[in-house]
Amino acid sequence: MKRVKLMVAYDGTNYCGWQVQPNGVSVAGMLNRHLSELLNEDIYVLGASRTDAGVHARGNVAVFDTAARMPADRISYALNARLPEDIRIQDSREVPPDFHPRFAKTRKTYEYKIWNRRFPEPCSRLYSLFYHWNLDVERMRRGAAYLVGTHDFTSFCTSKPEVTNRVRTIYSLEILAPEYDNQKSDLPVCSAQGEVMEHAGGRYENGVGMITVRICGNGFLYNMVRIIVGTLLKVGGGMMEPEEVQTILEAKDRSLAGDTAQAHGLTLVGIEYGQYESDKFNDK
Amino acid sequence: MKRVKLMVAYDGTNYCGWQVQPNGVSVAGMLNRHLSELLNEDIYVLGASRTDAGVHARGNVAVFDTAARMPADRISYALNARLPEDIRIQDSREVPPDFHPRFAKTRKTYEYKIWNRRFPEPCSRLYSLFYHWNLDVERMRRGAAYLVGTHDFTSFCTSKPEVTNRVRTIYSLEILAPEYDNQKSDLPVCSAQGEVMEHAGGRYENGVGMITVRICGNGFLYNMVRIIVGTLLKVGGGMMEPEEVQTILEAKDRSLAGDTAQAHGLTLVGIEYGQYESDKFNDK
Question: In this predicted model, what pLDDT tens digit does every residue of B231-277 receive, in sequence order?
Fold first, then answer.
């Protein structure tokens, strides 16, 4: 018997989420089915992060136990040959039998992408939130700064009765906006013949293009990243002051924060397991 | 009667290309159909770049003439409300009646994306070529340098009998590889508990992640960008020396260059119309 750890990437568009559901095709369900066929035994994977419907991953982690003789590092190749192309194992390796993807000390990184223009961009429509209104990146950065550190994030989660400890640590929360930071982009502009060339600040006449909210922490409560993003959108859009983020945090009241931003903008980038400081959470 | 110029973005995955075809749904066909319904007259758009099946665009350009009274800048909104979400007008405006998207002096920019890792990444599978073998970015850059400037690109196109002038000017040809250039990426790495943290150079144990071949020129022959990319893949993979690109260029022999890289990695980024030097091409 050995324990195998998978690093799993997926396009969440066509799944009901990570977790097996009675109705709907889940990522874990696909892995269970194809691993069971491949290894000829009943396999049930345990995932590090039970992402919601529509959320994507570049590096979710799952473990399972098997008596099969196939070397752990070959399972990635064999499994990828069976899986649909919207799920791809990036790595498979044997881990100690006591390795548990959810209880180990972890450092998780998520990215939430916001496409801020006058109109949506078709090739990023499935992987970013389209946001039409003007966003002030500096305000978003000032608001985000209040969230970094160790706090009770009750105001920034959808409550689950079994989760009583809502203290988490955010190591970093970056608002990446390359077009904004470069002032102008080097993207060419379509203009009528003879018109003065413009550059991308005015390319679609408003918006700063792609904004990536990149957040790294020791763990995240239910919907926490999406509620943080929904709140920063209010700050960036001028409906809330950056300083109010501090007030909301202290109030421990979900109703004060912004909406839960849509799932399809969110990607679980990766999970590190190591010597990071962390609590034992109560969210099983 | 007025002439309207559209800036059109699309995800080419589900189209047979720009051009109307007897069998298959084309981008131009979708525009003709929805513009005709919207403006209540028969509309036929003329596109600047007749992209192939599977090729994407952020800024293709199309023009059409209409007697409709709707202001040109409102057509983008009205048309987007009718189009499927994989086509989005980014801008609509009136242009002079003699504006012609293909004969005007232009500067076109294309990007070709290559995902260079051990395994594909699901969320970029439709917008980049998956290339499994190791690529040497420096070699690709050295090979690319021979193509910049004004040359006869006969070796780098699929010949069309009606195109007799195969001289084009490439203003720039960049090989963007941020992970390679940063030496290491700041992407977190999944490793078993207690393992030393790695960074992304070794994240999937090979590959340099996303490589973007960005090419800007006064015009491109049929399949030219894709054949250039196919050739640079040979150079990067060690099957061809960078200096051979010069030899191939001089030989004016298509059979010496690399394969035509797959369509889905290619995106037409944008077209500038202006005072750029350019020939009148013979490719109608």
Answer: 999 999 999 999 999 999 999 999 999 999 999 999 999 999 875 44
Residues 6+ apart with CB under 8 A from A180: A137, A208, A209, A211
Contact indicator for B273, A193 with CB cutoff of 8 Å: yes
Is A158 in the B-facing interface, judged by CB distances under 8 Å? no
Find chain A residues with C-beta within 8 A of B264's C-beta.
none
Nearest 10 degrees: Cα torsion A268, B114, B185, A266 = -20
Which of B18, B107, B123, B203 to substitute to test the interface with A, most A CBs within 10 Å? B123
pTM value is: 0.88
The rounded distance, in Å, linking the Cα atoms of B136 and B119 is: 18
**Whole-number Å distance between alpha carbons of A204 and A119:** 8
Interface check for A184 against chain B (CB to CB < 8 A): the answer is no
pLDDT digits (tens, 9 = 90+) for B5-63: 999 999 999 999 999 999 899 999 999 999 999 999 999 999 999 999 999 999 999 99
| A216 contacts B122? CB cut-off 8 A | no
Told to judge if A52 belongs to the known catalytic residues of this protein, a careful annotator would answer yes
> Taking CA atoms, what residue in B is nearest to A85?
B122
